[in-house]
Every structure is written in structure tokens, then in C-alpha cells.
């Protein structure tokens, strides 16, 4: 039998050890056996660790002085079929954008070849940008939605795949009957579950409130409870649900979300681009709501969650200009939402979101001294300074390695 291997990553490590607490582990290591983290400690103990693992081959990866190891980024709201429209129609408001761009594009996904071509690009691009977990909206077409699940499995991305449900207003997009949307969603759910993937799972995904009937929504919620699935929907309050945007929401409704343990996907770039408004994410966080970040492409204009961290900071600072005594979020809060906060919002924080023994190793090696990046390192920087550079000026060029469940996928 081949000798089992342990991969050891040595260098400066940054993660959120708990909500809103960024921890720097200087000169430390993380040891990974298959998919799981088996040890985290100071480099000073590394030789002892190696001696204890004599039955294993040790593969050691040593980070440079300008590299940091961080958890994988989590996109809690992304429309995979909208990728071809990235950057289009962003001078329009939401209704115009939906009618003139989005609905027309999503009809094309009846064509399985087109769907496969698009979804291959989306999954590879998001991984390249450091998205180790994505909560995808597909379309209401069942077979193309299954193709998205297969592609996520193929490339090793952790993903929630949602077959969209539409039963009202067919003149703008087409739709299903109430019976059909429930039956097809059940078929979709069972087929995804039967793939036995440890990374990819279905998620119940009703479309806008004006596109889904009450009867169909009840049936879909029943499926969610039967198969213990999350729901992504913008107007439903319960512990299973992650709602998007929450831009125009009074404080009373914020407290309702908190009381029902409903999570939120904050999509600041999308909110800016379609002139929807600014989400007061600080109020959500202060109320104890689990909040992750969403790219919400193609209303959002970048598939990377690093860009959403910047947009979230900008949005919060914009609110501080006209709300008295308002303390905006900072880069550490944004990083929390992009990692552990997103994991909590999707109820996978026992598996990923930060670094802990027995959690899966979803991680990025970030290099702030790549040749063609936005910023090269002309001085010595401590780990937190490299982290700040990544949040404010970094992009996919700085993400030199991506690991999902221990597997190197970039």
C-alpha cells in the first residue's frame, strides 16, 4: 500500500477564531490529513509533530515572507446563469435590468450545451477568485441545474445548488405549474443527494416574491424540512432561510430576522449597481444575525468575494456620513463575513469558515508580492499589513493556491 501523506503548511496564518475576532498565528503550521485539519501549532513544535507521525509521509509547504494563509472565501448569493451578462445593464434600475437582460439570458439555459459551457466557466472562475463555497441560483430548468451540480463536483467546489422556482407571471420568463415546480424540485433534490457528494448539496430556491405562489412556496418549504435543506429566498423568515439584500428594512424587521434566526446575504456591489440602496449591515450584525457576503452576479460586477469585502466597507462608511454616531464596519468585520460569517449563514460553520482541528481544510495562499498584481512589496510588512493589502487592493492574481477539503484546486 502507498504511504499515507500529511500536508503541512508553514507560515503566517490569519483567520477569525470567533465572530469579529481576527487572529494572527505568526510562524505557525497547519497539518492536514486528507480533507481534515489534524494539528495547528507554532513552528517551534513542528519537529516534534513530525516525529509523532512516522507512519506518514510529510509534505511541507513553506510560505514566503509576503504570503499568508487564510480560510477559503464563501459566496452566499450568486446567480450562475447570469455570468455571460457580467458588466452589462448596470446603468439601469432593477426592473429594467431584469426585463432587458436577465430574463432573456436565463431562457437560453434550455440549451444544455450552452448551460454546460457557462457553468464550466463560472465554477472555474469563482474558484480562481478564492470562492471555496458558493450558494448558487441556477434557473427553473431541472436538467441544466443538475449539470451545474455535476460541474461543481467535477472541479471540487463546495456548493449549494438551487433549481429556481417560478409559478407566476410567465410572460416575462416562462414558468412551471405549482404541481410541476414541486415535483421537479423534489426530483432535483433527490438526484443531487444521490450523487453522494460530501461537498455539493441542493438548496431550495424560490425566485422573487412576485414570481412564486403561496401554495408552491408551502410545498417547497415542506421539501426543505423533509430533506433538511437550506432555503434561499428574499422574503421568508425562519431558521432554514438565508435572505438576500435586506436594503429597505425597518429595525422592527431586523429584530424579527434575529428572533427567527434567519441569516442574511449582504450583496453591496449589486445594491450599488442597480441603485437599490445601502444595507445597514452594522444593524444586522449588532442584532446578532448571521451575515455572509454575496457577489450576486451579474447585478454584482465581480465574481470575487474580495471585491465584496471592499464594497461592504464602502457601503458602511457611506452610511456613517449621515447617521449620527454610526460606527462603520472595518476590514476585519468584512473578512469575518466573507469567511466564518458566511459559513454560519449557510449552517456549515462546524465544517469550514476558519481553522480548527477536525474542520475541513478550505484555504487560500495569498501572495501580495506577485509580479503582475496591483501592489508589489517594497518594504517588509507584518502579517496584518499583508492582510490589509489583500482586502483593499488584492484580487485573483494574489490568490496563488486554493484548497477545498484538503485538495489543491488552483
TrEMBL record:
It holds the Pfam family Amidohydro_1. Keywords: Hydrolase, Metal-binding, Zinc. GO terms for cellular component: cytosol. Gene3D superfamilies: Metal-dependent hydrolases, Urease, subunit C, domain 1. InterPro entries: Amidohydro-rel, Metal-dep_hydrolase_composite, Metal_Hydrolase, Metallo-dep_hydrolases. GO terms for biological process: guanine metabolic process. Residues 68-232, 237-409 form the Amidohydrolase-related domain. Transmembrane segments: none annotated. Its cofactor is Zn(2+). One of its GO terms (molecular function) is guanine deaminase activity. PANTHER family: GUANINE DEAMINASE. This is Amidohydrolase-related domain-containing protein.
Amino acid at each position: 500500500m502507498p504511504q499515507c501523506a500529511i500536508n503541512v503548511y508553514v507560515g503566517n496564518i490569519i483567520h477569525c477564531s470567533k465572530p469579529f475576532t481576527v487572529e494572527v498565528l505568526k510562524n505557525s503550521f497547519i497539518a492536514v490529513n486528507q480533507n481534515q485539519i489534524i494539528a495547528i501549532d507554532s513552528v517551534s513544535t513542528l519537529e516534534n509533530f513530525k516525529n509523532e507521525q512516522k507512519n506518514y509521509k510529510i509534505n511541507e509547504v513553506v510560505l514566503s515572507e509576503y504570503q499568508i494563509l487564510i480560510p477559503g472565501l464563501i459566496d452566499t448569493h450568486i446567480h450562475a446563469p447570469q455570468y455571460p451578462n457580467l458588466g452589462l445593464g448596470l446603468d439601469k434600475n432593477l426592473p429594467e435590468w431584469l426585463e432587458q437582460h436577465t430574463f432573456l439570458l436565463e431562457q437560453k439555459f434550455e440549451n444544455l450545451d450552452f448551460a454546460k459551457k457557462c457553468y464550466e466557466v463560472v465554477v472555474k472562475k469563482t474558484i480562481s477568485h478564492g470562492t471555496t463555497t458558493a450558494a448558487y441560483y441556477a434557473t427553473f430548468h431541472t436538467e441544466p441545474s443538475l449539470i451545474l451540480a455535476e460541474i461543481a463536483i467535477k472541479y471540487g467546489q463546495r456548493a449549494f445548488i438551487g433549481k429556481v422556482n417560478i409559478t407566476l407571471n410567465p410572460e416575462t420568463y416562462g414558468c412551471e405549474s405549482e404541481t410541476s415546480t414541486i415535483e421537479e424540485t423534489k426530483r432535483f433534490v433527490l438526484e443531487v443527494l444521490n450523487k453522494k457528494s460530501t461537498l455539493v448539496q441542493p438548496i431550495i430556491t424560490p425566485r422573487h416574491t412576485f414570481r412564486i405562489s403561496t401554495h408552491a412556496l408551502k410545498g417547497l418549504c415542506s421539501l426543505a424540512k423533509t430533506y433538511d435543506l437550506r432555503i434561499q429566498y428574499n422574503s421568508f423568515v425562519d431558521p432554514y432561510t438565508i435572505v438576500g439584500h435586506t436594503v429597505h428594512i425597518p429595525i422592527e424587521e431586523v429584530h424579527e430576522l434575529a428572533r427567527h434566526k434567519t441569516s442574511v446575504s449582504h450583496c453591496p456591489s449589486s445594491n450599488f449597481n442597480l441603485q437599490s440602496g445601502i444595507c445597514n449591515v452594522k444593524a444586522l450584525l449588532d442584532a446578532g444575525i448571521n451575515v455572509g457576503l454575496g457577489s450576486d452576479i451579474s447585478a454584482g460586477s465581480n465574481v470575487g468575494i474580495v471585491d465584496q469585502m471592499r464594497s461592504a466597507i464602502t457601503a458602511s462608511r457611506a452610511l456613517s456620513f449621515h447617521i449620527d454616531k454610526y460606527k462603520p464596519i472595518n476590514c476585519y468585520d468584512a473578512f469575518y463575513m466573507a469567511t466564518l460569517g458566511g459559513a454560519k449563514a449557510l449552517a456549515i460553520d462546524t465544517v469550514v469558515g476558519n481553522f480548527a482541528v477536525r474542520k475541513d481544510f478550505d484555504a487560500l495562499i495569498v501572495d501580495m508580492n506577485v509580479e503582475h498584481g496591483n501592489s508589489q512589496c517594497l518594504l517588509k510588512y507584518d502579517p496584518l499589513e499583508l492582510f490589509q493589502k489583500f482586502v483593499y487592493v488584492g484580487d485573483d492574481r494574489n490568490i496563488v493556491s486554493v484548497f477545498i477539503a484538503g485538495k489543491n484546486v488552483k
